[in-house]
Structures are given as C-alpha cells and as structure tokens.
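Subject: mismatched residue count in predicted assembly?

I count 472 residues in my input, but I want to confirm that the predicted structure covers every chain. Input:
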Amino acid sequence: MTFVRWTAALLLVPAALPAADDANRQLAHDLFQQLIEIDTTDSVGSTTKAAEAMAKRLLDAGFPAADVKVLGPNDRRGNMVVRVHGTSTAQKPVLIICHLDVVEARRSDWTTDPFQFVEKDGYFYGRGTQDVKENDAALIANLIRLHSEGWKPNRDLIVALTADEEGGKSNGVDWLLKTHRNLIDAAYALNPDGGGVTSVKGKIVNVDIEASEKLYADYELTTTNPGGHSSLPVPDNAIYHLADALGKLEKYAFPLELNEVTRTYFERRAPLESAQMKDDMNAVLHIPPDPSAVMRLSSDPRYNALLRTTCIATRLNGGHANNALPQLAQANVNCRILPGHSPEEIRNVLAGLVNDPKVTIRFVSDAGAVSNNAPDKKAFPPLMPSPEILKPLERVAAEMWPGAPVIPEMETGASDSIYTMGAGIPSYGVSGMAIDQDDVRAHGKDERLRVSSFYDGVEFFYRYLKALLGNQ
Ligand SMILES: [Zn+2]
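Triage response: the counts match. Full output below for your records.
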C-alpha cells in the first residue's frame, strides 16, 4: 500500500474549490434540523417520514421522480434511494449508505428536548447529531448543491438513507440488498456511520477511514440441575458451575492479533501520541511484540478491542425460588470477533476454556434463535482501501485539515457495512464530521455536534465526491 507523503508543496496548494456560500450552508442547516425533529426511533418513530422528507427535497430541487424512491417492508421503516446518473456506465456505481434511524432518547434524561434541534454554546443538540443524521443532511445538501451546479459524476452515484441500523427488525440495507439488489448494487460502498475526523478540543488530530469491522456474536452459557430443597444442599449446583465458567472467562484474554488495518492504525497513530503511549504503540508492532507494552495498551478498552477478539458476560439469569436449589443458570456472553475467525471457532475456544460438561455453550442469532453450533462464516477479512478511494480522501483531508493524517481503522462495534460486505460489496467508513475524542455522545444523553464541525463535514463531502467521482 502507498500513502501520500505530506510535502510542503502539497500543503501550500490553496483549496481549489469554492467554499459553500450562505445558501448552501442554510440548506444543510435546514435539512439537519428537519431530520433531527422527525422522530426515527424504533419504538414510536418513522424512518419513512424522514425518507419522504428527503425525497421531497430532492424532487423540489429538480431530481427526476424516476431516480428518487422511498421504499421499505412496511409503512414505518421506509428507506430513500436516489441515483445520480454518471457520464459513463463503464464502471459499476458507487453506493453511499447512511442510516436514518436513531437510538431511543428520553426527554427526562436530557437537558434539552432530544427531538428539538437546539443550537447553543457553539453546538447543535439533538438525538442523531452525531449518529448519524448530520451525514444524512450533508449528503442530501450536497446532492442538491452539485445538481444545481450541473455536476455529474463519472459513474452512477447511489445514496441510500436507510432504516433500523440501531435495532428493529427491518434493517434497510439488508432489506434493499435482498429485495432490490439492482437498485443499490455497486462496486463499493461508503458508509459515514464509520470513520470520521478525530479532534481534541476542536483541534483536528486525524481523519479515520474504517476499513474493517469485528463480527458480533452472542453465546448462551447454560447449566441445568435436578434441583431440590435448599435445606439439603449438594455440591453439584447450577449457579456454581456457571460462576466457575464465568470466572475462567474473566481471567482469559484472547491472543494478540494484528491485521493489515490495525497494524497500519498503530503505525500512523503512534506519532500523534506522546511518551509511553507512543512507545507502546510502536512496541506492539514488533515481532514478537513486547509483552509489557501489550499489557499497558490492553488496559485501555479502545486499544484492547483492536488487539484481540473479546468476549464478555453481559447478562445473567438463574434459580427460581429463594428456598430451592437452582435448576437452571444462564449467562449471555457477547463476543466481538476479529476478522479471519468464525463464531463457531470462538464457541469452541469458549468450550475449551470452560471445560465443564455441565455447561453448554450455544450460539444466539441476531433474531434470538439458539443453536448448538455457531456459523462457520468468518468475519470479513480487513480490506485496505484502494488508492482510488484513499488518494482523493488524503487530498481533501490535506486541503481542509493540513497535517492531519488519514488513518485506516477497524470498527470494534458493527455497522450496516456488515450487510454490504456480506453481499460482496467492499465497504469503507468515511465522514468529515469532527468529534472530540472525549465528547463521543452517540447513543447517550445531550448528543451534540460542534456547529463548525457540521459545516466543515458538509463541505468535506462536497469536495470528496468531486474528487472521487470527478471527470478528470
Ligand atoms: Zn450509527
């Protein structure tokens, strides 16, 4: 792989593209407000309303009706798909997916109403300001801006704003791939739900491009026992068996394993760190890695999750009466599996670790179905972005945030890219929205985005789309 080197010449090149004028900024602002104020939670919200609102904006701006579609499996879980026709069909389209739904938010937990778009203290507040309506707004604002400028991409560009990324039963990306593959089929996908710009107190540190994701898997550990009266206890106790099993899991760490993406991440992240952290990031790249550096780095949950597969107990359930010996004890163990390993492989590791015939370890699917064996399918191998994707990103990043390197990263959670990757469409997380690394509020209370970060993030996509899909 090759990366652009930062040269003085590169940094001195002035921004070649005009910054957004007031009308474009106002449009982005209004779209953002409109989206935040449409409740798209799973419980009572509707992504269809948000999808229709964005479709209307595009139609009002002159997009042909045939190219703008709102569709979904039911009337509350709609998706919006728009196709911008390119000047050539020689290459397969590029797809951008971005979810419309948001995590639940209670008014009583928040300082402001989560479904009101509030600007204060230099921030926009509201559910979805970080995850990820800021990018839904940015994408639609830029499609309208580019359309008004008469710009055409060099191949078809498809933008799909979708339902149920955060939960719910009607994941829009999955549904579109299964039922309308032609509508969104693409050479590769970009997903602003991953990647992004990392800042510290508003100062830009680096630009992340998500190039890999861990695989999510749940396991149910179960012990059963004939039980009996608790006045006549016996050593064979379902709760003790389960507790012993969880105790073994607590003390176990999966082996350290770096891949092309995480290795590059630490290589490029190290120079941005100071003192011990910098040394540790470099030391972990040595073969064999320095064990004390690995230990220190692993004490930070963010880095631990990059270094290995993790499995952690998340739920517990056992017994049926205070005066009865337990007949059943159960725990859920949630694993995040590194690329190259399958859920069945991890199930076998857990079984070997627990090593107790009284404890069964079964796989729990996303839909909640429990099975003796887990899928053999491995997490997708990490895919370093090709120069076609990376070079324009590095160019735009250098224009907008000189000196901030572009760093490939592995997502330790999971996003909708799991569906596009599963369908054979390589997928990368790209976003220009800067969030302070100590101000990540996605899914939390008082979610907010710095006002300047929003407008820069909107401008980023304008420049990146032109750089990526421009007719040179
Ligand atoms: Zn999200």
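The chain has 15 helices and 20 strands. Marking this ticket as 'not a bug'.
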